[in-house]
Amino acid sequence: MYFLPESLYIHYPFCRKACNYCGFHFSTNLRPQKDLILAIVREIKLIHSYSLLRGPARLRTLYFGGGTPSVMDYKNFHFLLEELNKIYSFNDLEEFTIEVNPEDVSAKSLDFWSSLGVNRISLGVQSFNSIFLREMNRNHSLETTFYALDVLKNDHRFKLSLDLIYGFPNQTFDQFCLDLNFIFNYKPHHFSAYQLTIEPGTALDYQVKNKTVTLLNDDLVADMMQYLYSISSTNGYHSYELSNFSLDNNVSKHNSFYWTSSAYLGLGPSAHSFDGNNLRFKNVSNNFKYIECVNEGKLPREFEWLTPKDRFNEFIMLGLRQSSGIDLNRLKCDFDSSWSSNLLFKMKQLNSNWFVHDNFDLNNRFIILSHSGRTMADYISAYLFID
Question: Disulfide-capable partner of 113 in 118, 212, 316, 359 (CB 3.0 to 4.6 Å)?
Answer without folding.
Answer: 118
